[in-house]
Records
---
Amino acid sequence: MESTATAPPTTTHTSNTDNHPHHHILPETSVLVAAVITVIVVLLVAISIIIALLRRVKSRKPNNDNDNDNNNHCLFVPHSIVTFNGTKGRRLCMNGGSPCRLEPSATFKGVQVFTYKELQSATDGFTEANLVGTGGFGNVYRGMLRDGTVSAVKMVRREGKQGERAFRSEVDLLSRLHCPYLVDLLGYCADNQHRLLVFEYMANGTLHDHLHLHDSRSQMLNWGIRLRIALDCARALEFLHEHTTPSVIHRDFKSTNILLDENFRGKVSDFGLAKIGSDKLNGMISTRVLGTTGYLAPEYASTGKLTTKSDVYSYGVVLLELLTRRIPIDTSRPPGEHVLVSWALPRLTNRVAVEEMVDPNLRGQFSRKDLIQVAAIAAMCVQTEADYRPLMTDVVQSLIPLVHNLSVGSSSGSFRFSKRVSPRS
């Protein structure tokens, strides 16, 4: 009986305790649900933004060329890469896949875009009277631009994909490389099938012509001028190899690609075969063997392994040309003298032999000490083992005192260096 009588209050008490907290749980649950929903919405928005950014970054990447010779390691500003098509007008690739049409004579980072008609007018119809150079790349004409600037207009021959790649490479590199020892690119034309490059005009043509044409021009290059040209070219390669990230390998450094201005200062030209090195030591990359016989480094010619030291070897060959006035490969000479490097190398370390191998036009213009130093630089540059070749910075530092010593006094011949050292010294 007692058990039955106490049961109802117990039940009633339990019911009251259940109802009391129920009023507090509902608002807390609502807040929790709202917070969860808010977090989910924020996460969804964040994910959407991340996906959009990833798509945008992906769209900015330049299209890869399937050809192995195309460079995929270029870390220069992406929006300055130039693309061309065969339609009317010129396009400059900006921000990856969003090309922007440029009007005739418009400028982009200092490089002008010309129509074919503009350059045809500048060169008087590409007449023979304005022809200043010829080569495997095409003809070069002297031109007068509308603003009165004298220029050199190079008409690029398009022979397959290599010609188009060389044209694009030269425009892309030179529009971003600015150095007083490189020939300035003023503009280009990619109008329909026409491919033309417009450079600053170099009044004294190529170093090759002055050294190897059988006329009086070689006599104009006395010892002082040749040393100054050697220093200018060394500074150009130093800039490409050691002041550009990643390094630029010219790959076709030779006397025909060294141009001389009105003061016989040297500038390096023709970057159609240039490559961007990797971030590894010396920028080693594997590529097809392209270049000019007689200037190719042995390891590059045999394996296709290209480094900045390949350019150093080519520089050494040019330095031998400046010393001897011999071409790199000359089958008209007696046996044993066909290849300039193999003939000269054992003589470069012999004080008597090195004087005998010097260009006769230079006799009496130099001190024996200076000649021995230049010969030693050349010998180091053309070493068979790439690791034994110097950096171009070392070459520059070795040549500077020789050139400055000549600039303090006067060199023999008609050329006199100014005592005032220019910024390019």
Note: The domain at 78-200 is CATH 3.30.200.20 (Phosphorylase Kinase; domain 1).
---
Amino acid sequence: MKKSSLFFVLLCLFQISKLGFCLAGSVHTANNNGDKRHGFIRVTNFGAVGDGKTDDTQAFLKAWEAVCNGGSNNTTLLVPLGKIFMLKPLKFAGPCKSSSVTFLVRGNLVAPGYTWDMGNSPAWISFDRINGLVVIGGGVKGGGTLDSRGSVWWGSGHAQDRPTAMHFNNCNGLRIYNLQHLNSPRNHISLSGSKNISVSGLKLTAPGDSPNTDGIDISNCIGVDIRDSVISTGDDCIAINTGSSYINITGLFCGPGHGISVGSLGKAGAFATVEEVRVKNCTLTNTTNGVRIKTYQNGLGYARKISFEDIKMVDSQNPIIIEQNYINRGKIEEVGFEYSNYQNRGSKNRFYKTESGNGRGVKVSDVRYSRIYGTSASDDAVTFNCNADLGCDNIVMDHVNIVSAKAGQVVSASCNNVHGSYLNSPVSCIKK
């Protein structure tokens, strides 16, 4: 080949290489410009690797600091699609400069595959004092999933010290959408000390025998709206605890698990209050309990103005329960109904004799059950076990029709110290 031809070929190769470099640079610049235009801050820009093994905790905290302190220009922390980020326990703290910040999870997050000291880390991922926080899952198949690897915690040796997976505290105006969450060590999501919360499109999953793996626990919150979600765990799908009011739950598919619970309230003699709760258009399948209110017998306070409407039961063990004399028998925090002071022996309901005359108890009143239907896996479709001194007042059953899941069997209802009324409810023990 002549020298002139060789020079021409080399010149062409150089130009092609230069073009490729420029194109790559242009794509990188375009991505950065796109991030800036949309207010994104990528965790990978702060050193996050996303191989599922490397500890990316510090990179996430640095990215969060940039988002939280970025004012109105950069308000979204982006977890990019196609990567798995391993995170040790961490806290995203506010207050932030912007009135709203977003945690956008398109990739996947996993917890360490080992237990840790609970002293300084009661939750795997916590958000504290962040108003206007928006947490959004990926919304695409295979992305936006959190795996808490709770199985390493579920052994008996860790019964008392297991972390919540995600804890939101003092986060007014919180929004959580389209999040998938697997295998929490304990409850999947805790909401506390906050107002005006909206939750929808969640899928929370853990084995039915995993201990205390509640879906969502609510405490000291005002104005919580939970919609169109699927919760399949080893304990309560949703537990509404003290200090909570104006709670709306709509379109929930629950099961397996322990159903939807108000309480437990009044533990260790505490003053507890829950009011203005509405549960509507929900389906509970193969749950240990259905819709339940449970209060400790020596507590104080009230649970009132609660309604359960348009609820479908599919083989629930105890579809409708008020247990006003609840006792925790050797279990940690949340326990199944079988550990209360009510027990089913054979086909008849029996109640333990409870302490009376002590002037204590959590008052239960103004509870309405409307259009509750489906099947019960046990003989006990309705159980109202109320305190001899306080009783349960203004309990209304309106079109409650639950039948046995077993062919040829019938279901029954049991009432103890309950006052109210019923309308078109074949299974009821309330006296008009």
Note: The longest strand covers residues 300-316.
---
Amino acid sequence: MAQRFNYRVFLTSVLMCLSPLSFAAPLIQPSSNVDEDGHELHSAEVPVESIQQFVQIYNLVKDNYVEAKSDDALFQQAIKGLVSGLDRYSRYLSPEDYKQLVQYTEGDLASVDFALVYDARIHQWVVRDLKEGADSYKLGLRNGQNVLKIDGQDLQTLNHDQVHTLLYGSIGTPIQIQTAEMPVSQTLIRNKKIEADVQPILLHNQVLVLKVKVFQQDTANEIKRLLEEYGSPRLKAVIIDLRNNPGGLLSAAVESADLFLNQGIIVSTKSRSEGNQQFQALPSSEFLRLKMGILINHRSASAAEVFTAAMKDHQRAWVIGEKSYGKGVVQKLFPLPDGSALQMTVSHYYTPDGSMIEGKGIQPNQRYPLPADMKDETYLENVADLLLKQPKS
């Protein structure tokens, strides 16, 4: 069995490797397991072989990389690599990044701090209304620049609505923008809050479409209010449109699902450190007779997938569209003494049937993506017709 010891020894060892001394396991006194606030510290153990390998690689980089790097820069890079290598969501936040993140309201929908306008003369999407001093301006973006890709997706084949929904996401989340003037993509932060009330559309076939852009604190109450407002003997069905919905608050998704269920699990979470939880539907019959459809696409994520999976697994709604994004994680912020923080995955979402959402997404009952040459109004009418042909859940 490999020899193991406390991580404090590891830190001391790494510090020693920066001196001319050869590597040796240092002798240190056991330190206190309580921090300044009296909270118990949990010490991790690291195998000696791993420490030796890290020190060897560290010295090789320090001595041979084409540009000189400070010890602080190398350690910051090592920390970022450690956290970002866990999954696609966990990341290390510098003090500046963390300070900016906590200023945002969690779960709100946001966009970037400029407008994208299609210039028919050059057949390109162009940056407009970017103010000098804005965050994107400070990062090098300028009015008049041509945007080629958003999050790696080429804009040439997308329509107006598709391009603008790419800009939407949970406030404080990163977005990759690539312009013709930049050789590589630039990471921006969605920091312009968008009002995200539930938008009703009553179709000619008496199907009510409720567009939910993001799950916020009052989403369930707003859905209930609109159903009561539009509800009549003539209303044939309701479609919850979750296309491009990045998620939002888990509690809001659970409350929204609870409107249409009268029993059973809505979602469960499993965590090594936080414990496992189950969210159950409460008995209710208010909207049980209402025929339901859910419309999703590949950008429906997180809380939107929780809602969709609950409705689908309980056979309460017919899901139409395309496979969802597949983000089924709960994240937690761990502030550090220097003002930085770790944003780390601590739990996974599981559907009522016990399937993990992360990396898999939710498959629709009926696949029907939006055709590139079809108007959204026509698409919604077609989706409503498909729903009406299905037997009532």
Note: The chain has three domains: 1-25+40-69, 109-193, 199-330+346-387.
---
Amino acid sequence: MENVDFPKSFLWGVNSPFLSFLGNSREGSKKQIFENVEKDLEEQLSFLEKLKINSFRFHLNWDLLFLDTFYSCAMYNNFIEQLRKKEIEPIVNLIDFDFLSYNKREAIDNIESEEKISIFIEIIEKIVSTFKYNVQYYIVLNHTTEYLKRRFFKVTDVDNLALHETVQNLLNLYDKSVQIIKSINPYAKVSVSEEFNVDEEDQLDLVFSFIDVIVRGESPFFEKIAFKKSDIDFIGINFNDFTSNSEEYISLIRELSDGKNNIDLDEVIKRCSSKYNLPFLITENIATGEDDSLKSRYLVNNLYKINQSLENNAKIFGYIYNSLSDVKINNHLLKTGLYRIDDKNRYISLRNFAKIYLNIIEDNGINERYLKYID
């Protein structure tokens, strides 16, 4: 089998950790909070230097933005400028519902009110005005469908009126954010990203529903509602394998995921390509198992599927691994990062599968050494 090559302009990247390396940003005085976050960002930069990626996707911490919008924007802009000096393309997650629901639960209630959405819009305008042309890629909303599932579909009796009102509010939040971004930086690309790790095919209708609303102005999932089509430049595909061979993960994984991946990444890409004539970015991809050889197999197999999809004319322009480091949540250590960390949250080394990923990036392709991992 010959080497598997990727386009020259392909984006290779990694996501920032779900939470700060240094702990919860809400702890301590305002000065201590920002000192910790700045140290955290410096540490991220230092470890990015050792990688060969050309893009870095990170979420904005709304705890910080609500605490001091001006200082937070300046801090993030400095971080972005440092990324650009290293020739790393910043990809900014404006609103990540997983992060919001974990770190600032009351912010979720604000999104459900048209009146309170204006608070988010005011801050987003300050964010984009600060970044200007430094950021070319924005994920405006991340994990929107996961939020809707948690909010409305944990019970059998769904309040359709409240559901439709919330979807309309989310669409308004998206539209207003895009208008701000495009008015300040008309060259910027805007998107939403959704989680496709579903265990049943009929669940895909729900996952596609909010993208349908944005792209087409309608969705089979919301049959009686007509929406206005929105501006969107690409679609983010989150495809995470939340399975594990370790008992310590079980309670957390059940919390983060309803099931295992029964639908392959190439099938998701194929369906996206048939539904939307838009480019795609793989915005999250991860395996939670501990075995390095299994992680390597999972990584190489997914990259091979992406390459085959490109051969079949899918418009995929990049791959983002999730995440830069292991993550500790509720005393559970998710050993999912390119970098290991010990119990004191200090880095140890790159994992073996991460070295494979870096070699693939350097070659811009999968060479014969790694083809053995392909099923």
Note: The longest helix spans residues 160-184.
